[in-house]
Every structure is written in structure tokens, then in C-alpha cells.
Design a protein that fits this description.
two-stranded antiparallel sheet; four-stranded mixed β-sheet; alpha+beta; Ubiquitin-like (UB roll); Translation Initiation Factor IF3; 5 helices; 2 domains; 152 residues
């Protein structure tokens, strides 16, 4: 159909001529209400954004001289965050002369990662950043953990 004929047909119906596929030869157009089409398109995009899972970054701070009960409590919180699908940033703060013993912080972070077990994978290994040692933990995908439990 010629462009002028399509425009006239759309005008007779009180609708708009909307180009659906501009890349094809010849371009594909539809006679429809553009306002309604645009509204439906925005609504679909909004729904897709809403369904997309959001991953939050949670932060847990430790000290080098942390007691066992405090360590277990922080570890329990970390496991809860990972089960909800959030990433966890674990920070060990060094104060004063603790800076000369940074290897204790690395051991603490490795023990923390081991305590999370099969729920977490280390996204970023322990790294010293000023007076802080930082490690990132990400939740493992559920399919990975299921296949490992099925094998055993």
C-alpha cells in the first residue's frame, strides 16, 4: 500500500499510522492508536523491571580480636543475607598495632568464608585496602548447590 493511501485510511478511522519494523524492506506499518500503543509498551517495560531480581550489597564488619560468639553471630547474619540472594562485603578493620599482623585478618576472612560453606562463593579474595581488609562473597546459584547435594 502506498504511504498516502495508508495515511488517508488511518485518518478516516481516526487512528495513527505507526511504523512497526523500520528496518525491513518495505517498512512495516500498522494503523493503531499511538497513545495506547506507547502506554502498553511502557507498561510492559515497567513490569519487566519489576520482575528483575535486585541484588543488594550487605556489609559485615569484623575486628581482628573478635570473640567466638560474636563471630558466629556475624556468620549467621551473613548466611541469612546469602540465602536471600544478596552479596556480602566482609571487612576486617585494623586498629593501632594490629596493622603489623594483617595475616590474622586474612585467616579470619578465610575462616568466615569457610563458615558460609556451600552457600557462598568468594567473588573477591581478601585484599588489604588501607587499614581495612575486604572480601566479597556472592551467593551461589541454587542449581549449583542442588547438583552438589545430589552427587553426595
Amino acid at each position: 500500500m502506498k504511504r498516502a493511501d495508508a495515511l488517508r485510511a488511518a485518518e478516516d478511522l481516526g487512528l495513527d499510522l505507526v511504523e512497526v519494523a523500520p528496518d525491513s524492506k518495505p517498512p512495516v506499518c500498522k494503523i493503531m492508536d499511538y497513545g495506547k500503543y506507547h502506554f502498553e509498551k511502557e507498561k510492559k517495560e515497567k513490569e519487566q523491571r519489576r520482575k528483575k531480581p535486585s541484588v543488594e550489597l550487605k556489609e559485615i564488619q569484623l575486628r581482628c580480636r573478635i570473640d567466638t560468639h560474636d563471630f558466629e553471630t556475624k556468620l549467621r547474619h551473613c548466611v541469612e543475607f546469602l540465602q536471600k540472594g544478596n552479596k556480602v562485603k566482609v571487612i576486617v578493620r585494623f586498629f593501632g598495632r594490629e596493622m603489623s599482623r594483617t595475616e590474622t585478618g586474612a585467616e579470619l576472612l578465610n575462616r568466615f568464608a569457610a563458615g558460609c560453606g556451600e552457600l557462598a562463593s568468594i567473588e573477591r579474595a581478601p585484599l588489604l585496602d588501607g587499614r581495612n581488609m575486604i572480601m566479597m562473597l556472592a551467593p551461589k546459584k541454587q542449581t549449583e548447590t542442588k547438583t552438589k547435594t545430589e552427587r553426595t
